[in-house]
Structure formats: C-alpha cells, structure tokens
Design a protein that fits this description.
The chain has 192 residues and is mainly α. It is built from ten helices and no strands. The two termini are 19 Å apart.
C-alpha cells in the first residue's frame, strides 16, 4: 500500500512542480524561440502538447518535435524535462532519467528538472540520489513544500526516520493540505 500511495503523490506532484516553477518563466521563452524558428501550426500544437498534455504519448511526441527543431538551450532543456516527465508517466524510468540528465546539462540550475529527476531516482530505488536532488531543490526554493515531502519519502525509504519526520513536518508547515506528509508522519509513528 505504501508504494501505491507514493506513486500517486509522485505523479500528482510532477505537474504541480512544473506549473508552480516554470509555467510563465518557460512557456513565454518557448513561444518566442519557436516564433523565431518559423512556427507552423504543427509546431504550435507540438509546443502545447510538450508543455501541457496530460496524455504521456502526446507529451512525448510534442517534445520530440521541439527537440528535433534544434531550439536554443533553455527551450531544449524544458522540452527534455517535459519529455522525461512523459517517459516517467509511462514507466520508462531509464529514458526519463536520461532526458532529465540532458535537461540539466542544458540548464544546470533548473529546479523543476532536479525535482523531477529526484522523483525518478526515488521510483528507481536510488534513495541517496533522490535525497541529493530534493536537497538541491530545497536549497534553491526553500518554500517548495513538495520537495520537502518527497525528500521525506526518500529519507523514509532509506530508513532515516527522524530526518523523514522533520521533512514531513516542514512540508506540512508550508502546505497544511499535504495529506501525504500527514500519512508519512503516521507511518513513522506506527513503525516506532
């Protein structure tokens, strides 16, 4: 049951993290860059699919078009991150990790890509790598409750109950509606 609960949190939070951190900051440059690259109606649809599609296959296909257009590095980074999210949604975690690593190579400080890579690392069972990614996100955006929540999940999985508890409490202080953090605290309390 714990694994399914984590899965729901990870899939739900990927979209929230993208929306919160990168909607305005990246969609406008994407639009501008594509306009400079002679946007056709097909490319405009690809842009929307890459950035907004909830269907993983449509997201991946849209991002493939953007990536193939050889966009500037900031646009490439967003498209790679979004394609990585699509691969994670379909369970292709190694492909997701590859895209997220490439996104970070194109834009090293991209917090949304670090956050999503942390989610994938956690899904792959690489808790220390996940903790490192979530810690980097928290250092750059200390008010990002979902990063605290997911670092708590990673620490819980790694057996670091006290650290996980502190992260869950911090997540709840930032967003009292995060039921997953409340459930994490309850699990830790039961396991003592």
């Amino acid at each position: 049951m714990h694994r399914c609960e984590h899965k729901a949190v990870v899939l739900r939070t990927r979209h929230q993290a993208f929306d919160r951190l990168y909607t305005v900051a990246t969609i406008l440059p994407l639009l501008g860059a594509l306009l400079l690259h002679e946007v056709t109606p097909a490319r405009a649809d690809a842009l929307a699919d890459c950035n907004e599609a909830y269907d993983a296959a449509a997201r991946i296909a849209g991002c493939d078009v953007i990536i193939a257009a050889d966009p500037p590095s900031d646009v490439l980074a967003v498209a790679l991150m979004n394609r990585g999210i699509g691969h994670a949604q379909t369970g292709e975690l190694e492909k997701a990790l590859e895209d997220l690593n490439a996104a970070l190579a194109a834009a090293p400080g991209m917090l949304a890509a670090l956050y999503n890579r942390g989610n994938v690392q956690l899904d792959l069972g690489r808790t220390e790598a996940a903790i490192a990614d979530f810690s980097a996100v928290i250092a750059g955006e200390p008010g990002f409750a979902l990063a605290w929540l997911n670092r708590g999940l990673a620490r819980e999985k790694a057996g670091a109950g006290s650290a996980a508890s502190a992260d869950f409490k911090r997540a709840l202080s930032l967003d009292p509606k995060l039921d997953a953090a409340r459930r994490g605290l309850a699990r830790l309390k039961r396991s003592r």
